[in-house]
Specification:
By secondary structure, the protein is an all-beta fold. Helices cover about 0% and strands about 50% of the residues.
Length: about 110
């Protein structure tokens, strides 16, 4: 087990990539970071949320990252570039849960009980 400091506020969501070479973390500093696990250095930063990034999920092919936030949005990111691909803002409050199905369908759960 190893720990390192990389966010300005606490980390909430965390996952490993399928190859085990990288980790991804979401944080109370509103960012998502991709980490190289050999060097423990930041490889890429995903920015756009205006609230705590509560949970993250990786697509089965590892090409897309989904994030949900207390800002009430769900976002999809390109893992290779860090660019935001899509944003979903239902306007009903914080979103706390996210998952990808094997076929790429995105599932979210939020404060509004949906």
């Amino acid at each position: 087990m190893r720990s390192w400091h990389g966010h300005d506020r606490g980390a909430y969501g965390a996952l490993f990539t399928a190859d085990g070479r990288h980790a991804v973390t979401g944080s109370g500093d509103y960012t998502i970071k991709l980490w190289d696990l050999d060097s423990f250095r930041e490889v890429r930063r995903f920015e756009g949320h205006s609230g705590t990034v509560y949970e993250i999920a990786l697509s089965a092919d590892g090409k897309r990252l989904a994030s949900v936030s207390l800002d009430g949005t769900a976002r999809i990111w390109d893992m290779d570039t860090g660019n935001q691909i899509a944003e979903f803002d239902p306007g009903t409050g914080p979103i706390y849960a996210v998952a990808f199905a094997a076929d790429g369908t995105l599932l979210t759960g939020g404060y509004d009980r949906t």
